[in-house]
Backbone:
């Protein structure tokens, strides 16, 4: 069987493609969860990687959980309440935990429906670009369950509490233009232009010093949880490191000389 998550590296950018189009790319299966963990560990250890694009194969971005498995009470949806709790904790919840450790900026290129955990997966990324065919639904209530993968933490941070509440309490889908108006995505493009738009954004990112990119992402993530005083202290420490890199010297020289800098992560 082919890999559930395709990994492609080019021009300092890794493209990860959810590769189960025949079932609309669910992310609740053990092999997909393990593939995410392995890919993120690989990216974090590769200093040549400066950005990630995440997309789906076929017509859907991700259907989230496998509804047939819910019906049949198999896999992570089977067993006693205690077993199901453990199934979530040691199953799909490993994806948001892994994504939280991703050190480089991540772009979700949402090619089609992003439903339930698939919607939450887009929110685990730092930026989102949508195809005109994309729809987003925090649809857990529609199948009689709650967001078990961290959606109650992720979605309000993407669209605000009122919009997140509307999506979670109704389970209704929103189209790409509504997602743009609500700030869930930053761009909506024609389906055939989606990956080009994502790569263009990635190229605008990867041209910058790689160590500073990773530190900036860490600060943005920490800023969602820490006090201002704690974040300022962390910022001061990281800034001291940044000032002593060759890339900082190159960036200043390039700015003064009105040219594009060449950065090596040193």
Residues:
């Amino acid at each position: 069987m082919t890999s559930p998550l395709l990994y492609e590296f080019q021009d300092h950018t890794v493209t990860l493609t959810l590769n189960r189009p025949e079932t609309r790319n669910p992310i609740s299966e053990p092999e997909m969860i393990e593939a995410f963990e392995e890919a993120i560990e690989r990216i974090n250890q590769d200093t040549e990687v400066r950005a990630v694009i995440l997309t789906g194969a076929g017509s859907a971005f991700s259907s989230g959980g496998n509804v047939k498995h819910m019906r049949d009470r198999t896999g992570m949806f089977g067993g006693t309440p205690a077993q199901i709790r453990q199934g979530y904790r040691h199953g799909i919840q490993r994806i948001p935990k892994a994504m939280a450790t991703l050190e480089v900026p991540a772009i979700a290129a949402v090619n089609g429906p992003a439903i339930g955990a698939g919607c939450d997966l887009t929110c685990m990324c730092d930026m989102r670009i949508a195809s005109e065919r994309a729809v987003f639904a925090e649809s857990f209530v529609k199948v009689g369950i709650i967001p078990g993968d961290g959606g109650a933490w992720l979605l309000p941070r993407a669209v605000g509490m009122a919009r997140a509440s509307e999506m979670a309490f109704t389970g209704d889908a929103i189209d790409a233009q509504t997602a743009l108006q609500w700030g869930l995505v930053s761009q909506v493009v024609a389906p055939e232009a989606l990956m080009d738009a994502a790569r263009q954004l990635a190229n605008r990112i990867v041209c910058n010093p790689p160590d500073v990119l990773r530190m900036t992402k860490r600060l943005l993530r920490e800023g969602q949880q820490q006090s201002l005083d704690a974040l300022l202290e962390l910022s001061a420490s990281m800034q001291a490191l940044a000032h002593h890199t060759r890339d900082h010297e190159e960036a200043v020289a390039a700015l003064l000389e009105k040219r594009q800098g060449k950065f090596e992560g040193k």
User: Anything to note?
Assistant: Strands lie at 5-10, 13-18, 51-56, 106-110, 114-115, 127-131, 135-137, 173-175, 187-189. The CA atoms of residues 17 and 55 lie 5 Å apart. The longest helix spans residues 30-45.
